[in-house]
Design goal:
Layout (H helix, E strand, L loop, with lengths): L12 E3 L2 E5 L5 H10 L12 H15 L8 E7 L2 E12 L4 E8 L4 H23 L4 E7 L3 H9 L3 E12 L2 E11 L6 E5 L5 H8 L2 H5 L9 H12 L4 E8 L2 E10 L4 E7 L8 H12 L5 E6 L3 H9 L3 E2 L9 E6 L1
Parallel strand pairs: 5-6, 12-13
Antiparallel strand pairs: 1-2, 2-3, 3-4, 4-5, 6-8, 7-8, 9-10, 10-11, 11-12, 13-15, 14-15
C-alpha cells in the first residue's frame, strides 16, 4: 500500500517526464548512499550506517505519515520512472506557512543533470507547497560551496534574500550561508477584469518589454500608431476577448483569447515588476475558471520555460503538430 500524507489531498505530482511520490522505504539505502557521498554540503556530521538509516525510516519517517501537520514532507523523485533523488519541504512552520526546500540527487548524475533535476524538483515541490498547501513562502539554505546551485534556483525565480557571513565551520574555516526565497501569490487576492480604452498605454508598454518581444514569434518592436489601431480593432472584434489582472490596485498583466475554428488561442504577459511571483499561472487559471467550457490553445517558444511550466501545470497537453514553426510548442486544453 502506498503511503499518503494526511495533510495532502493529492500525494503524487508530475511535470513532463518527472514525478514525485511520498518517500518509499525501498529507496532508503540509495538515499543513504547519496547523503554519505555528499556530506560536504549537508547538515550531517558523519556517514550514516544501515542501522541508523533503518531506525530513521522506522521512527521519524513513519511518524510523518501519522501526523496531521508533520514538520517535513519528503518525497522520492523520479525521472522517466527511475528513482534518481529525494527531497521535500522541511522545517515547516504551519503558523506562518513557510518551509525550507531540501533536495539530494543521485551523485553520479550531478555532473550532467544538476540543473535540469533541480529545476524539475522545484516545479514539483511548488505544486505541493504553493498549490496544494497554499504556503506563503519557500526558501533554500545553502553553504557557499556550490555556486551553480544559486544560478539554478535563481533561474526558477528564487531571489537571494540574505547572506549569513561566516555562519558555519567547514574544514577548519567559517563559510557563508546563502538564503534564497520565493513567495506565493494567492489567486484570491487578484482580480481579472475586461480591458478598456484606459488600458491602451499599459498594454503598449508590456508588448514592447524586451522579454515579451524575445518570447514572441514576431520580435520587432511595436510602434504606437500600429498598437493603437490594433487595440481599437480588437476591442470591437467579437472573436477576441482581452482582460487585465489587478493586484492590490495595480495592473500586473494582461491576457487575450482569440477564437479560431477549433480553439481559443491564449496570449498573456506580466509586468516586469511582478514576474516570478506566480501571476503568470494566476492569470491563466482565472481565465480558465471564467470560461470552463471552452477549448484553449497556446503557442509557446521552446525557450520560454516559465510559460511551459504554467500550461503543463494547468492541464494543457503538448500538440507539436499544430504549428509549422520548429522552435515553438503548441499546448491545448479541451
Amino acid at each position: 500500500m502506498k503511503r499518503k500524507y494526511n495533510c495532502l489531498i493529492k500525494n503524487h505530482f508530475s511535470f513532463q517526464e518527472y514525478r514525485i511520490e511520498p518517500i518509499r522505504d525501498e529507496d532508503m539505502y540509495s538515499i543513504m548512499a547519496f547523503r554519505n557521498e555528499q556530506l560536504f554540503h549537508l547538515r550531517q556530521s558523519e556517514p550514516l550506517t544501515k542501522e541508523q538509516q533503518e531506525h530513521y525510516f522506522g521512527t521519524v519517517i513513519k511518524a510523518l505519515f501519522e501526523a496531521e501537520k508533520p514538520d517535513q514532507l519528503l518525497f522520492s523523485f523520479f525521472h522517466n520512472d527511475v528513482f534518481v533523488g529525494y527531497g521535500g519541504v522541511v522545517h515547516i512552520n504551519w503558523l506562518d506557512r513557510h518551509a525550507e526546500i531540501s533536495f539530494v540527487m543521485d551523485t553520479s548524475l550531478e555532473s550532467t543533470r544538476f540543473e535540469s533535476y533541480w529545476q524539475a524538483f522545484l516545479t514539483l515541490i511548488e505544486q505541493v507547497a504553493f498549490e496544494e498547501l497554499r504556503f506563503h513562502k519557500l526558501f533554500t539554505y545553502a553553504y557557499n560551496l556550490r555556486p551553480n546551485l544559486y544560478v539554478t534556483i535563481e533561474k526558477a525565480n528564487y531571489k537571494q534574500e540574505a547572506i549569513l557571513k561566516e555562519h558555519c565551520l567547514f574544514n577548519g574555516e567559517y563559510i557563508d550561508v546563502y538564503i534564497h526565497s520565493k513567495t506565493n501569490t494567492p489567486i484570491f487576492e487578484s482580480i481579472l477584469r475586461p480591458v478598456n480604452e484606459n488600458d491602451t498605454k499599459a498594454l503598449f508598454n508590456w508588448v514592447n518589454d524586451p522579454e515579451v518581444r524575445f518570447n514572441s514569434i514576431q520580435q520587432e518592436p511595436i510602434l504606437w500608431e500600429d498598437h493603437l489601431q490594433w487595440f481599437r480593432r480588437k476591442l470591437q472584434d467579437d472573436a477576441t476577448h482581452m482582460f487585465l489582472l489587478e493586484y492590490a490596485g495595480k495592473a500586473v498583466g494582461q491576457i487575450r483569447i482569440d477564437q479560431s475554428e477549433e480553439y481559443h488561442y491564449i496570449g498573456y504577459s506580466i509586468d516586469n515588476n511582478y514576474r516570478g511571483k506566480g501571476f503568470g499561472k494566476c492569470i491563466v487559471a482565472q481565465l480558465l475558471k471564467m470560461h470552463p467550457t471552452l477549448s484553449f490553445a497556446a503557442v509557446v517558444k521552446k525557450t520560454n520555460i516559465p510559460s511551459i511550466r504554467i500550461f503543463e501545470s494547468l492541464g494543457f497537453e503538448l500538440k507539436e503538430n499544430l504549428s509549422n514553426h520548429h522552435d515553438i510548442y503548441t499546448f491545448v486544453k479541451e
